[in-house]
Specification:
This is DUF1365 domain-containing protein. Pfam families: DUF1365. By secondary structure, this protein is of the alpha+beta class. It has one domain. It contains 3 helices and 14 strands. The protein has an 11-stranded mixed sheet. Strands 3-4-6 form a 3-stranded mixed sheet. A hairpin with a 2-residue loop joins β12 and β13.
């Protein structure tokens, strides 16, 4: 099994993010977004108008915004994560980080994804790097126990152990599905508890090469997208409060930085 090599190249995804709450009341929204997909092997050699790599620009992609958050080598960091979970042999190929860059110096990433491949390009593991609005973060690493390739649309699970929304308790499990096909990147993350789907989410985008046309189109269509992420989080929280959805106090974060 091998992946389309276009998914291993620097690219921009134009699409949407959608959430649909099923319990205890229906509530949904979708917004247009754009995101970067950056292979770690290309980090130091990408030169694109409007994008600064580890430097300030209209868009900027910084090592210090990911992994250990200290500006150190991200390939070394994700390699240590994979080694700790006995996935080094399976994930011996490219690692692609899918994330929102800073725009005009500001960013809030609800979740970034580290897609870990084998030498043939097949997807073997994914790390979902989750941030909450309290400045905390946690990683969910999903893979098959034997490190087998992850097929398109195949479901992988991780127990929820990190507080994100005050309108959900820290319980249940996340069910992940990944589709990389025909020039698109689609990630489904559903929250299940008590035998029911509580929340369905998707981040979906059509991929274009990371180049001048895509970056100028992004700036023209979504000039304040990253600031809008935070604004929309609080707007949706207000709407849930208006619907009298139960509020849960924030517990202490998990001791481990990464769980499976």
């Amino acid at each position: 099994m091998s992946a389309d090599i276009s998914f291993l190249a620097p690219s921009v995804g134009f699409g949407l993010v959608a959430h649909h709450r099923h319990q205890p009341c229906a509530h949904g929204f979708h917004y247009p977004v754009a995101f970067l997909r950056m292979p770690l092997s290309a980090w130091d050699r990408v030169r694109v108008p409007l994008l600064g790599v580890d430097r300030a620009h209209v868009f900027s992609l910084n090592r210090r915004d990911h992994g250990p958050r200290d500006g150190s080598d991200l390939a070394r960091w994700i390699g240590a994560v994979l080694r700790a979970h006995r996935l080094t042999a399976a994930c011996d190929g490219e690692v692609v980080l899918q994330t929102f860059p800073r725009m005009f110096g500001y960013v809030f990433n609800p979740v970034s994804f580290w897609f870990c491949h084998d030498r043939g390009g097949a997807l073997r593991a994914v790390l979902a790097e989750v941030n909450n609005t309290f400045g905390e973060r946690h990683g969910y690493l999903v893979a098959h126990e034997d490190g087998a390739p992850i097929r398109a649309g195949e479901e992988l699970t991780a127990r929820k152990c990190f507080h994100v929304s005050p309108f959900f308790p820290v319980s249940g499990e996340y069910r992940f599905r990944f589709v990389l096909a025909e020039g698109c990147s689609r990630v489904h993350v559903d929250l299940w508890a008590a035998g029911q789907c509580q929340l369905s989410t998707v981040i979906d985008g059509r991929l274009e090469p990371l180049a001048r046309p895509a970056m100028w189109r992004w700036l023209g269509r979504f000039p304040f997208m990253t600031l809008g992420v935070m604004v929309r989080i609080h707007l949706q929280a207000f709407r849930l409060w208006r619907k009298r959805v139960r509020f849960f106090r924030k517990p202490l974060p998990p001791v481990k930085e990464i769980s499976t």
